[in-house]
Amino acid sequence: MRYLTFGEIMLRLKAPGVERFFQSPVLEATFGGGEANVAVSLANYGCDVSYITVLPDNPIADACIAELRRFGVCTRLIKRGPGRMGIYFLEGGANQLPSKVVYDRAYSAIAMAKPGDINWDEAMDGIDWFHITGITPAISEGAMALSLESVKTAKSKGITVSCDLNFRKNLWKYGKSAPEVMTEIAKYVDVAIANEEDVQKSLGINIDVDVESGKLDTDKYRILSDEVLKAYPNMKMIAITLRESKSADINGWAACLNDREKFYISRRYEINDIIDRVGGGDAFAGGLIYGLTHYDDKQKALEFAVAASCLKHSIPGDFNRVTLKDVENLAKGDASGRVQR
Amino acid sequence: MRYLTFGEIMLRLKAPGVERFFQSPVLEATFGGGEANVAVSLANYGCDVSYITVLPDNPIADACIAELRRFGVCTRLIKRGPGRMGIYFLEGGANQLPSKVVYDRAYSAIAMAKPGDINWDEAMDGIDWFHITGITPAISEGAMALSLESVKTAKSKGITVSCDLNFRKNLWKYGKSAPEVMTEIAKYVDVAIANEEDVQKSLGINIDVDVESGKLDTDKYRILSDEVLKAYPNMKMIAITLRESKSADINGWAACLNDREKFYISRRYEINDIIDRVGGGDAFAGGLIYGLTHYDDKQKALEFAVAASCLKHSIPGDFNRVTLKDVENLAKGDASGRVQR
Amino acid sequence: MRYLTFGEIMLRLKAPGVERFFQSPVLEATFGGGEANVAVSLANYGCDVSYITVLPDNPIADACIAELRRFGVCTRLIKRGPGRMGIYFLEGGANQLPSKVVYDRAYSAIAMAKPGDINWDEAMDGIDWFHITGITPAISEGAMALSLESVKTAKSKGITVSCDLNFRKNLWKYGKSAPEVMTEIAKYVDVAIANEEDVQKSLGINIDVDVESGKLDTDKYRILSDEVLKAYPNMKMIAITLRESKSADINGWAACLNDREKFYISRRYEINDIIDRVGGGDAFAGGLIYGLTHYDDKQKALEFAVAASCLKHSIPGDFNRVTLKDVENLAKGDASGRVQR
Amino acid sequence: MRYLTFGEIMLRLKAPGVERFFQSPVLEATFGGGEANVAVSLANYGCDVSYITVLPDNPIADACIAELRRFGVCTRLIKRGPGRMGIYFLEGGANQLPSKVVYDRAYSAIAMAKPGDINWDEAMDGIDWFHITGITPAISEGAMALSLESVKTAKSKGITVSCDLNFRKNLWKYGKSAPEVMTEIAKYVDVAIANEEDVQKSLGINIDVDVESGKLDTDKYRILSDEVLKAYPNMKMIAITLRESKSADINGWAACLNDREKFYISRRYEINDIIDRVGGGDAFAGGLIYGLTHYDDKQKALEFAVAASCLKHSIPGDFNRVTLKDVENLAKGDASGRVQR
Amino acid sequence: MRYLTFGEIMLRLKAPGVERFFQSPVLEATFGGGEANVAVSLANYGCDVSYITVLPDNPIADACIAELRRFGVCTRLIKRGPGRMGIYFLEGGANQLPSKVVYDRAYSAIAMAKPGDINWDEAMDGIDWFHITGITPAISEGAMALSLESVKTAKSKGITVSCDLNFRKNLWKYGKSAPEVMTEIAKYVDVAIANEEDVQKSLGINIDVDVESGKLDTDKYRILSDEVLKAYPNMKMIAITLRESKSADINGWAACLNDREKFYISRRYEINDIIDRVGGGDAFAGGLIYGLTHYDDKQKALEFAVAASCLKHSIPGDFNRVTLKDVENLAKGDASGRVQR
Amino acid sequence: MRYLTFGEIMLRLKAPGVERFFQSPVLEATFGGGEANVAVSLANYGCDVSYITVLPDNPIADACIAELRRFGVCTRLIKRGPGRMGIYFLEGGANQLPSKVVYDRAYSAIAMAKPGDINWDEAMDGIDWFHITGITPAISEGAMALSLESVKTAKSKGITVSCDLNFRKNLWKYGKSAPEVMTEIAKYVDVAIANEEDVQKSLGINIDVDVESGKLDTDKYRILSDEVLKAYPNMKMIAITLRESKSADINGWAACLNDREKFYISRRYEINDIIDRVGGGDAFAGGLIYGLTHYDDKQKALEFAVAASCLKHSIPGDFNRVTLKDVENLAKGDASGRVQR
């Protein structure tokens, strides 16, 4: 089984620990981005996964590629092109204080890439599963075109396509709205992943649940997922993540999956001391792709995905630095946090 | 609108992170002190604020002044004089372990200052609001005399005077007790700020609520504030902060305000993962001064103050490094802590 | 009153803060081990305590000895011998992610020590209380023999012997099982300390309580302790610690003590933001030994021990860096975590 | 005397200490840029100095402005506009390994600014000295136009104009070459500052000295400076810095000044353990401007400038964190480095 | 061209910066070992290189392998086996204070490996160049046997064999002396690398030059290398590194190469501010292997090797984190250390 | 052989690494002071040494005492009294930039101690060697009186007294000048230690050598020491340290000793990359006391002292963290700085 993910990876510059920006003259410097995060998850579980993007040809991008290689992600397909390395600045939050992202990703190499810059036919040779998100088409006209090329090629080669809708309100600045593009991309998607807001803002499908509030109503998610599957007959299934945001530290976390035959609901986790929320959704996507390709039982696949993303909240950085065994243990039900020795 | 605050600013030396003193051979070195903290809050909200104190003429005091300037606080009135820079050592706490303050502030420049060392008439030229606390008069005979001079001058110039009673049991060592002095100062105060213990220990006004325990009884605070206002006919209003200390990490936080016409009670926040409690009261004072001078509605002013101080608990250091927008968002009710991107 | 503890001390190499191993190229480097941790606790409370072990003759072991001396533990009895300094690697956990210990303690100097390498008669000269744990006899044939020698000598000299049963499933690799050895050692023990799993795995005494689950049932512990005391007529008392592991951050913590006359149950603490769990049991043992030798009242001794170990959860590192006063304050009931200034 | 400097300030992201990029997942994060560095120098010497630039409206730029304010630089003239905050990545060098700069400054707010975006007439109101460098006109067509506007306005208002020619071969990408622009700007300059390469690459004036080699030949610099002054009759004087680069740690450092009347040569410093070379030239410019406006004696002014920039090599970061007294002491000849206590 | 190196890689635990052991409770934690260092060098220059060793199956060894992968070294041949991960502790030196290595490498997985544990025939499939050092056979009887197996297999498959003699006086504890083993291994070596002490202590070939003293005498090295080549007729060439140790910071560095036809002497570098000397010899070996397989000119190959190892002295850690271009620039003669921007 | 030293120990707060004060919000926090530094040196060499001082009763002083205990210094004689813990702030220098000390030691416990506060008779029971410096009598009237008491008691008990004259121009503020006091103390001194400036400023004995300049003239030191010995007939010998301060990084270092019979001159060390100069003189004193009490040969004693203090320049912090073997190796002549493994 070979996997490929495509999207933007950025330099992530975070104020250290619980500090505000420039409280100390230091930034924690790592790398991350939705699709790269998914690739790292799959590599961590022992999968053969490649990641493709466009990066500039400089030492910062070299370090980024080396970091991906460290996790065992194959980086041979990565292209170098004009433009910058995208950056995002991050300030952690706590209690009632939200964490903040400041994007500096304009003019990145992937944003400046043009249709045809990637030979998708070659890149997808031997690939079984292709993953993309709703972030890449939001970056620029060119990245959108590349995204469309990618899913079309994948489809034509019989590759399973998963897509995390991932709506980002501060992107989509090149003249197209999210629904204009995402409704087109969705036609090529086998496995959709989303939260409720994504469904609404990317696909324009609404049912009235207040995103800001907390308590879940699983019936609504069943209805919502049914509507998406009705709108996209090609789509084999959709998974919806259910986050209850009580504070920057305390979240409830669960997910559901609708595969047209059955509506699965996962165990719900209470996370009381969130270390880093960023990448939680990507950890879910990575876990779900792993689960769907390694378990026959969709409930098990969903539980693996939710456990994986639950653990991500305890790990600093975008990447979900867990082992297969860590996730399996939690998915099996051991959430006691006892010291392992 | 121009503001002035007066008091002592100290070098704050904290054991790093969650460590005990000298567990590592390093101390986090910042600056802080009640009245300076209030000035920084006001500057952060975009106000034109000056801070006055007496500091020695050495590179440590220079750095302190530079740090205040960084936040936009006007430091031109600061005087240099004989004596040291006050220091306080701080060890963070967690759970049942309290954080600890070790004072090394004896013989500071402000403690050694004498009446007449500050030309209050000049310093207060053009000032609309003057803020002081009960800490300065607790330091030394001289600082007490300067404090008295300051409020009298302010009064004579028609400047609004606010005072955070701030009782500190380990000060008041120069021969006067807190009530002897504070009952005199209180006569010049328009806006008093206090917690219940401050009222009791500084003004000698008691009603029987156990400071150490938790659950609030708002009626008591109405009565208590009424008594203070009765005792000080000049006082236009008093705000009382209501902290429920469940552990070093978990506090309930709210406040009330009595303006002789109405008794306002704020929303109550549960803070579950306190980052730094020191300066929480000063953040309230800063927020209240801002609120009272920017909102017509006293409930809104109080909510702003409580939101501001609630956020302070999530920020390391004495200074409340929040933006006006951060506070407004929380005061409006968004406490979900969702990532802002 | 002079105390002696005997066992292995290791170099403790922890991933910094909340990071996974090698997320940064740095390890927090301290020292720790069950019996040394107990010695440090006693020294912190002002007791005259010695620690005996076998260490290699190199700068890392020198630093370890210096660190013990720093706390006031007498290190003059420590022997140097062939073999390594044992190491354990530690990764902190959070929420549902457990912390992990990776042992690298094989071939340590104490593991390679042989019966007769320590002159117990001399070492115990003037000693009133001797403490050992179930870890040392688990290390190697030689360490087991030395452990047996030690308790026999102590007994013969009328020294009170305490033993923390401390079952470690990844040790016991030299050919003997835990019960084979520990049932023999237990014959010389005056004060046994254990959790339920220890009793079961070390002494083979079971009653059916699920170790992984949470809610306590104090009756069971009364019965369990009665059975141990019945099996070991020499044993004067047994204390059992009661941990409810809700997550890596949140634990309930309490203990009980059975002295054949009465069954004491301590106050129960809810610890919501665990800083470091490792050494929590040792802090209990240290507190209990102090309590039993300084209070006539066993309830008070038990409360002291539970308060001490409760505080340990808020302190990074193996050693319980608290003062006598810190523990006394909590044992007396002040768990509010208010800033002390 | 009021000073104004204009140019780009960047976020400076440096690999920590002597490490290569991403050897640790951390970057030292400060700010710097030629003209801002000059402003900080002047502020450090107690001068009334303003800095003008265009920055985006985000928290990173806010922190940059706060940092300038910290040093006492007036930041009120700084404009906010579309575009990014420029960044440069820096890796320190040692011995034969050069330090490396990776620019990420394309599309910065100042690069995207247009002629007319700054009201130079207002900005220069009350200013006596205006400083610019050859970096700003190298950034973009717009920045070049703003630079030209600035020197013309200054000239028309009788303000003294200084310009550090500062040739940067990796800029000048918008279609104009350095000499095309700089020969025009030079017509408005009263005080030129340069090293030999700058003169050659910016003004196209050559004499044959090998830039890479070491040993100085002062006659050549006399001739070179004479030629520049001949070419620009408006120019009152030119200072040339003389760096002998023996290794990344060891440099000789001196300068000369030609004021048409006399050719001054400074003392020469051997710097054997360079801490940070970046900003050394700016420290010279700042020192020279201070010297020329505070000393009647040009030799003294030059010695002050060389001493100031010599000291910069011992200070990490772009800014020359020295006091007036530090520079005066060295300029007077105390280079012994004895502990001051 | 495919390369393979074989040997032990250790966890390297260094006191931070210039500190002594445990001056701070932290150790810099990286990985290194002679043959792995050579593999990293080759990977950095863009070569296709594999590294083979035996490591335990635990998270520390996993991190070690990930780190090698980061540099692009192929780690697929690495075997897991019983035993520990070898460790070495390092304290940096300065001036007259030498840096110190404390080995904790006994009982490592490679030390406990047995002949036959590695299938050399498979491992060397497709390999053109095999590199080994004199450290591996010094570790244990088993590692020695594996080393002999490796060079014999390489020889039989027509693979070029290079060997860095690398004498370590604190190893060789299993019953064989260095010359007993190394004279046998040398028979299979095509390219020998050594310093004078190595030749003497490993091969027993002496000429009288004092290792501790400084000034070089190139004639001696010509004679010495001639003698080695005479003793080992199979050997095609020998390179000898020439270090002049003036202090922990200041070393002269050069090398010579004798290929039976000609005696080449490299440029000599003065390194005045050594950052990290460990791995300097390995950087030479890596550079020489690269040079000999990429340049026809042996002088150029030697200059590349010396430049590479010269640069290593400016880089912290065992690995030579330079690029091909860095080395080429220095080999071409630019040692000025000017900032590259 | 038992040693005792008496003086002030301070909290030492240093800007990290090469940074200026508050460039980062952190201070390196250790402890140091002339006489404590000497005690640590002696303890490091294995001597039985006590240190006596007066400290406040707070957690900072507790940590200071623990740190001394870590090195094996006996701290039982240390008294607690009113007053502060003295502090000194330190900024490292480099090249032409001197390091700077900012004292905050006024009102320290030892400064506020009174004659009679220490029972010298008891403290000196069993002591063979007593060491003091010229710093203690410079602090305050009381500290001066205690110093005089101490040397008189020592003399009366036949204890050898050593004194490092150590002139500090920023102390001596209580009304007495250095010569007024030091000429009295010198009468009780057996072994005097000084540099030329100390002799001149403390004892008022001059010969014309320029302290600021470099090149040594050993004849002058012979004459100078002869004059001191002539003035103090009780004095058995005087050692004079000879520092050539070329820059903050580069110093020459040597010493001479005059024992009335012979004038010894030590080897001279060139130190090119000074890590920390503070405590260099104390390291000499500690080394000399060790040497004089362990070697019959005074040349050897002097070489030991100079080697010890030479090494101190390579060690951060006040304390000379070297082993006996480190010093012996250098004293024997190995200054090559080769890696020890």
Task: Please tell me about this protein's structure.
Chains A, B, C, D, E, F: Residues 23-312 form the Carbohydrate kinase PfkB domain. Chains A, B, C, D, E, F: Belongs to the carbohydrate kinase PfkB family. Chains A, B, C, D, E, F: This is 2-dehydro-3-deoxygluconokinase. Chains A, B, C, D, E, F: Keywords: Kinase, Transferase. The relative contact order of chain A is 0.13. The two termini of chain A are 34 Å apart. In chain A, strand 10, helix 7 (178-185) and strand 11 form a beta-alpha-beta unit. Chain A is globular. Helix content of chain A is 35%, strand content 22%. Chain A is an alpha/beta fold. Chains in contact: A-B, A-C, A-D, A-E, A-F, B-C, B-D, B-E, B-F, C-D, C-E, C-F, D-E, D-F, E-F. Strand 3 of chain B pairs antiparallel with strand 3 (26-32) of chain F.
